[in-house]
Amino acid sequence: MGKIVLFMHCSLDGFAAGPKGEMNWIHVDQEIFDYVATRIAATNTALYGRITFEMMESYWPTAADKPGASKHDIEHAAWYKTAHKIVLSNTLDQTKFTNTTVIGANYPEELRKIKQETTGEILLFGSPSTAHALLKENLIDECWLFVNPVLLSEGIPVFADVQAKQQLNLVKTQVFSSGVVCLHHEMKRES
Hints:
This protein is α/β, with parallel strands linked by helices. It has five helices and ten strands, in the order E-E-H-E-H-H-E-E-H-E-H-E-E-E-E.
């Protein structure tokens, strides 16, 4: 059975984006890209909310073709082209995208079915609204939070509307030279 793994940057005070979706405070560099690339290469399925997917689609299909494309752009663009993409949306037309499955209002049932049929992991990139919805449905199995050394004081929270206390097990931490810390947690499940 597959599992859904949340990959998200956040501020030290728990925001995934600024009040208007700003992400210019997120620190990424080659050290973080290399760490994440190793992790991403171990899977072939990505999960996005509509807004994040549209951002990804506007960049990754041609990122490697741009003059001066970075190592990260070349590697991630190659992965993105072959990865199966799952998008939570009530408005996108699945037929306009290759290797993409669009799931609408019945997403909890559909994702449970996809998890049953998947042997690997399904990486949820960013997409705070989607993360909130999946947390409500108990569909997220692990969290990889890249905590940036910045306080935003307001914005879009990483975790919102959590219905009940959820325990997590810390699996690993990784401290980067920039001061960003990756916290890898597994969600505790009741037996």
